[in-house]
Amino acid sequence: MAKTVFIIVDGMADLPIKRLKNETPLEYAIKTNLYKFLKHSEFAYPSVLGKLAPQSDSGVMADLGYDPFKYSTGRGWFECLGLGMQPKDGELSIRVNFGSVVKGKLKDVRIYMSKEELEELSNEINKKVKVSADFDFKAGEGYRAGLVFRSGKKDFSSFVSNNEPGYTAKFFDNGVKLSFATAVKDRKIHKIKAVRKEAEYTASLLNDFVSKASAVIKNSRVYRERKKRGLELPDYIFLRDAASKDPKLPDINDKYGKKWAAVAGMPLEKGIATAAGMTLVDTAEDKDIKTDFYDKAEKTARALSKFDAVYLHIKQTDAVSHLGKFRDKYAIIENIDKIIISKLAGAMDLGKDTLIMTCDHATSSELKRHINSNIPVMISNSKFGFHGNFSERVCSKEHIKEIKRAVDIMPFVMSL
Fold this sequence. Notes:
By secondary structure, the chain is an alpha/beta fold. The chain has 2 domains: about 5-70 and about 250-415, Alkaline Phosphatase, subunit A (3-Layer(aba) Sandwich); about 90-245, no CATH class. The protein has 15 helices and 16 strands.
């Protein structure tokens, strides 16, 4: 059976940057090894969520063929599932950021810490925070964590707002919940609000938790040690995308008749892959980019010997975009080409296998946030002809008309 590798490079798409000769980091990057796949390729340039700027959860879901407007119940579910917290229907699962606030206004929504620091703070919160519900709090990656409320005095509801500036929760008639990236216009920190009356207990619980957890953080050893060393100080937690229902994604193996594996190191993407029925390849996010890429390249190549299709997720491009580091972004894309694409060119049968390279959303390196631009998609298959460069500009001009939305990518690829 022909093999498929589906690469999602987080936040890869961007806007033209004057200091890169008015090109995007993808367009500017040297991609020598990718030309082996461009010899037989077609492009697509679909929207992800139309006029709305997507988060990674909705972007990845859409790329893998799951319509977020049909299946999304809130990012928190996938985040906590990917952390191994096993959320259940009726429980409340939430994505958490460690950040900082000064005089009631946002200073930083992301305070990066070591794994050891994150775990120590998480243990402190689990031990010292007392609210009207049982909960589990678990460290994630970088500045992230997961929070699951198991049982409380009343039923939980996902109809609550976020307290993180820049992400607005929206609710739809069919029970779907999505958060969209927005510009941070008001840096004032707002309390979590109930969108429906049924959510008043949940909103009150979450506000109580934020207050008590933030106090624990400010009195922690981690806070004191970081202050001594002159490091950025975490003193607040931001809660986003509370979910109380299983999204119940159809099994991707049954859907397309192929056995899927996932090579992903981040909790969110692990959670989506797990919910879709993929087999997770044991992978961690290494801080050294080259080490991380060699590991993921090797594991993807090995997975091809056991599975029909592999989903590979690469995170670093989005992280540097949020920091405004556009030079790092194109350098990362070049390393993807040198290490991962080079390895796959040797591991795949270019005469019959298919490689897809795309992203979950566009992240502007100058605006430092997600934007609602269409995403570039490269589909390499021997049925197609030659293309010279893979970029947003080229994809916008030369693309397959059938792929209008990101959810159209997977059905098209699986039909080849």
